[in-house]
Amino acid sequence: MSSVIRQFTVLSLFILAVRPDGELLDLKCQPTVGIVAQTTDIRCQYKTNGDTIINGVFLKKSTEENFIFQMYGNKIYGDKRFSLENPTNDPSLKISDTMFSDEGNYDYRVVTDRGEQTVQLSITVTAKYSAPVTGTLPVTLKNGRLADLYCNATDGFPGGFIHWFDKHKTNWTINSDLTKVPKDTNGRKSVALSSKLTFKSIDVDLAPFRCVVLNSKYEEDGESRILFDKSARSDEPKVLEPNTTKIIAGVMVIGSLIVGLLFALLFFRRKRSFHILNTDRRRSSAQPFLRDYDSAKTAEDDSEKP
Ligand SMILES: *[C@@H]1O[C@H](CO)[C@@H](O)[C@H](O)[C@H]1NC(C)=O
Ligand SMILES: *[C@@H]1O[C@H](CO)[C@@H](O)[C@H](O)[C@H]1NC(C)=O
Question: Which of 28, 44, 107, 173 could form an S-S bond across to 163 if both were Cys, CB 3.0 to 4.6 Å?
């Protein structure tokens, strides 16, 4: 019984090994999204019986005649950025330093010792956004005042999005205004994003604000926080405005002058009554006022002593 099964298995394996049938290879490649300037892996696989050996691969754009990359008999031709993940038994491809021009549909032919197959594969090339740059207008924010928060991200492709949140994770995106500016520098495509979140009256207690940069598929590319200066709080309108302070200072100066004047008046009245008592002696002395004052003061001090 068991020998019959074994014989059948051996026979089946033999048939598999000799049939040059692509369908037995069952080659499949996943649609690929590469990131510009990075290495792109194009995942491909075939049904393997463990020791299938690749004899050659041929890759060309579906719209073009010439092969971009070929490998057979240990020889490699074409674009040096292309390579096989594992030249002996893995048909997966690799593109180093991915470029926007790599985007498109390809015909990929894989020849193995078990047969050959040609499949179509597609490559999309995107570019990651750089870390967002933030800023505010005015530069120094004040609580309860008008404020514009900015969040800019560049170099990404295709165009993405910028979302806004405060420290309580409240979504402020609806109040923001997103501008997209497409750019193309020597075939390096990008869409610059600039988002402005405007507050008529900002509440500094909502800081830090967070702006999140998303790519075209709403995947997060980066984020940045906007913290407010401590002065945003201390500069908020107080009960005592600077003007009020000035007025109060003025009132205090004038007040102390008046009080001083009153004291001076009082003092001179006392001095005069003292003077009248000593009229005769003082007159004869004919001393300058200051001396007069000093002696009067001394006399007064003496008179106050018990
Ligand atoms: C962001 O971009 C806008 C529009 O280009 C610009 O007015 C603003 O100054 C930029 N802000 C920062 C922080 O780079
Ligand atoms: C925030 O609001 C935007 C615009 O209204 C929306 O597209 C986005 O899905 C929201 N994000 C979250 C995390 O709620």
Answer: 173
Q: What 8-state DSSP symbol labels residue 155? A: S
For domain 2-126, the CATH class is mainly beta
Buried b (16+ CB within 10 A) or exposed e, 230-253: eebeebeeeeeeeeeeeeeeeeee
How far apart CA 251 and CA 254 sit, in angstroms, is 5
Specify the amino acid at residue 2: S
Query: Which of 164, 170, 171, 178 most suits a substitution to test ligand 2, by most atoms within 8 Å of the C-beta?
Result: 171
* Residue 233 or residue 193, greater confidence: 193
Q: pLDDT digits over 128-157, tens only?
A: 999 999 999 999 888 999 999 999 999 999
34: closest CA among 132, 122, 129? 122
Q: pLDDT tier at 5 (50, 70, 90 boundaries)?
A: very low
Query: For the chain, which residues make up each domain, given as ranges?
Result: 2-126, 133-233, 240-289
| Maximum CA extent, the chain | 157
CATH class of 133-233: mainly beta
Q: What is the mean pLDDT of residues 190-219?
A: 95
Kindly state if the Cβ of 164 falls inside 6 Å of ligand 1: no
Residue 296 and residue 280: Cα distance in Å, rounded? 14
Q: 133-233: same fold as 2-126?
A: yes
Instruction: Tell which residue, 43, 151, 168, 17, has the closest CA to residue 95.
Output: 43
**170 CA distance to ligand 2 middle (Å):** 10
Residue pair 237/144 in contact (Cβ under 8 Å)? The answer is yes
Pocket test for ligand 1, best of 130, 133, 154, 194 (most atoms within 8 A of CB): 194
Which residue has the CA at smallest separation from atom 11 of ligand 2?
171
Q: What is the pTM of this model?
A: 0.63
The pLDDT of residue 272: 58
